[in-house]
């Protein structure tokens, strides 16, 4: 398995690499364009702010590289948010690999923002990424912004209102939670990403 982690400056990179090592996979960290495009699988991790993350990707020349990827690509936490068209966080344009806009989660009585802690996943439709995952499985979240429950959302959660927890469009997918901190559920998601066959989206197939 030729798997790479995109060097996006995310603070969770070390823990992601450790989780993958538990699955027997070494995942080098790289910003090398050719190495990313030649990989079998690509993971885009991230913790922090969307504007700063996009600026780092732009400086490294990685925006067009990620847009050109045709292999399975998994965004984690902020990395998932960067897959969308734009984010309210810094009013920044993102990678545009998935339609939609990431928005700040609304505060409400009894609802703390940022959302930190365990939440139950609510599968919405079948996805290879969710094999073995059901409505009794929990994941660990740390975020204040979220993507909407749109047509590419395959699993949702609720924190005051529903938000996208897992998304997939063909070979582009993301987990808003931290698989590396989500015990058995997180390892299952990572294993599915490594082992499953992902078909291209309809739009990609036409291209």
Please characterize this protein's 3D structure.
The chain is 26% helix and 29% strand. The chain is an alpha/beta fold and 207 residues long. The protein has one domain: Rossmann fold (3-Layer(aba) Sandwich), CATH 3.40.50. It is globular, with a radius of gyration of 16 Å. The chain starts with a strand and ends with a helix.
* Straight-line N-to-C gap: 27 Å
Biggest pleated-sheet summary: 8 strands, mixed
Strand order, main sheet: write it out: 2-1-3-4-14-13-12-9
What class would the helix/strand composition place it in? alpha/beta
CATH topology: Rossmann fold
Number of domains: 1
CATH superfamily: Class I glutamine amidotransferase (GATase) domain
Topology, number of strands: 14
Mean pLDDT: 92
Low-confidence stretches: none
Q: Please, how many helices?
A: 7
Globally, the shape reads globular
Query: Would you state the CATH class?
Result: Alpha Beta
What sequence of helices (H) and strands (E) makes up the elements? EHEHEHHEHEEEEEEEEEEHH
Rounded to an integer in angstroms, the radius of gyration calculated over CA atoms is: 16 Å
Strand content: 25-35%
């Amino acid at each position: 398995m030729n798997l790479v982690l995109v060097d996006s400056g995310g603070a969770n990179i070390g823990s992601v690499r450790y989780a993958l090592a538990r699955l027997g996979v070494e995942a080098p960290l790289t910003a090398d364009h050719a190495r990313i495009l030649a990989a079998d699988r690509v993971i885009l991790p991230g913790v922090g702010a969307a504007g700063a993350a996009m600026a780092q990707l732009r400086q490294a020349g990685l925006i067009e590289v990620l847009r050109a990827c045709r292999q399975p690509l998994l965004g984690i936490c902020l990395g998932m948010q960067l897959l969308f068209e734009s984010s309210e966080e810094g009013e920044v344009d993102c990678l545009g690999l998935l339609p939609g806009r990431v928005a700040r989660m609304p505060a409400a009585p009894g609802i703390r923002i940022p959302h930190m802690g365990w939440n139950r996943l609510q599968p919405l439709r079948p996805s290879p990424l969710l094999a073995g995952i059901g409505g009794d499985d929990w994941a660990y979240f740390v975020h204040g912004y979220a993507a909407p429950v749109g047509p590419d959302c395959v699993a949702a959660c609720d924190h005051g209102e529903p938000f996208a927890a897992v998304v997939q469009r063909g070979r582009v997918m993301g987990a808003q939670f931290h698989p590396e901190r989500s015990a058995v559920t997180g390892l299952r998601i990572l294993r599915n990403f490594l082992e499953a066959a992902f078909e291209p989206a309809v739009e990609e197939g036409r291209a």
